[in-house]
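Working notes for the structural subgroup meeting. M.R. asked for a predicted model of this chain before we commit to crystallization trials. I am recording the input and output together here so anyone reviewing the notebook later can reproduce the run.

Input as submitted:
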Amino acid sequence: MQRRKQYPKNAFVRLTVAEHGRLTELAKEARLSLSRFLAESGLAGKAPSYEDRERHERAIMEVNRVGNNLNQIARQLNAQRGTINLRRVEEALIETKEALEQVKLQFFNR
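Returned structure, recorded in token form:
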């Protein structure tokens, strides 16, 4: 009953199986319970802002767009129809590299 007095409020969180697994893993590494880990992490102010989430969504859309271009090129190569412009292949690869570098900078170098 002592614990109830120390923490009188409950919070319920919805997680995917993958999110739960990753958070549980991180909590174990920090030697904290999952609930304590979530509370400490949230209070540390490191949660992504609305703008961070918007940037993340835009980055995913950009990477998907570039991926679609690469799929179109691959489809043409596999079918051996049409002419493949090597410049177009090079541009798609450069765009892919740039998009992935932006994602890396935005989300892994915080």
